[in-house]
Amino acid sequence: MEKIIRRLLKRHDIALSKRLGQHLLLDQGVLERVARAMATDDQWYVVEVGAGAGNLTALLAQGGAHVHAIELDERFRSLHESVFAEWDELAPRVTFSYGDALSFDFAAAAREASTLGKKFAIVGNIPYQITTALVSKVVYDDVPFDSMTLLMQREVGERLAARYGGRQSGAISVKVNFFCDVQKLFEVPRRAFLPPPQVESQLVTFRRHAPPLPPDERARFFALVDAAFAQRRKMLSNAVAAKGIGYGKRDVESALSELGLPPTARAEELGLDEFLSLYAKLNSR
Q1: What is the pLDDT of residue 88?
Q2: 3-21 confidence digits (pLDDT tens)
Q3: Burial class (CB in 10 A: 0-12, 13-18, 19+), 212
């Protein structure tokens, strides 16, 4: 696989860009594990973020899915055209578009999938520098995906999956788990990529669930979460009171005590469920 990809890159005069965070996944075994984790067939419409050389694109299409692959780097266009033009059975199921995934209309793609009577998935070996922005865009915008499976930096995956708090958790942990069940699937070693990144990677999957609060309460709840983590070394009561969002230090300490939590608790000691309970207590006064 590596020799084939290197030849294609050379033929199309593509030098991988560090600035764009390009690390192509080459390990065939890992690619097949990703495809199996997706479990897609002809009943799925998949948007792939970061198509690169198109090797995951091809695997997903071979499984029967319709794949809309996004690639920021226009230099890959000729490579895609030459490879998939010769792949008669796959070409009708694969569409490429070239641009920034952060500007892509995922909601429109979900509507297209629905029109076709297919389930909607998002997958990608994404540039690590856009992970938080991409997940936030898709999750917070209520894009109705059935499954989202992303290969990302291991530490970011740990943070996103931290539903129950802990040192890895942050405001984004609470917010993403508010909308989704997040599961870490498996780690991917550096040697699986070309060129190898400086960090370890992890495959993480997201599945939507019903949010625990109605839309008109979410902004106030997220403001509480953001305030709590704004100064994570401080006690949660001090951090929240300092933001001036309507909750005083004593109110927060009292609510924490009623929940059986120490008034000196820090934000990382609470998970999604504890934050929801704290929010309910503070707004029942």
Answers
A1: 83
A2: 889 999 999 999 999 899 9
A3: middle
Which helix (H) or strand (E) segment is 230 a member of? helix 215-230
Structural domains in the chain (count): 2
Looking up tokens 């520098």, which residue turns up?
Answer: 129
Mean pLDDT value of segment 127-151: 95
Assess whether pLDDT exceeds 90 at residue 85.
no
Whether 285 shows a pLDDT value over 80: the answer reads no
pTM: 0.93
Q: Are 200 and 233 part of one and the same domain?
A: no
Nearest to 155 by CA among 206, 207, 205, 202: 202
CB 60 within 8 A of CB 35: yes
Burial class, 26, CB count within 10 angstroms (exposed 0-12 / middle 13-18 / buried 19+): buried
* Helix, strand or coil, per DSSP, at residue 264: coil
> What is the pLDDT of the chain when averaged over all its residues?
95
**Which DSSP helix (H) or strand (E) runs through 216?**
helix 215-230
* Same-domain pairing of 139 and 84: yes
How far is Cα 51 from Cα 61, in angstroms, rounded to an integer?
13
| Nearest-angstrom CA–CA distance, 134 and 139 | 8
Residues 133-160, mean pLDDT to the nearest whole number: 96
The verdict on 120 and 235 lying in the same domain is no
**Nearest CA to 120 among 111, 132, 133, 131?**
111
Cα angle 112-76-70, degrees, rounded to a multiple of 5? 20
232, pLDDT greater than 90? no
Domain boundary among 181, 208, 235: 208
Please check whether residues 51 and 177 belong to one and the same domain: yes
- What's the domain range around 197? 2-208
CA-CA distance, 275 to 217, in Å (whole number)? Answer: 13
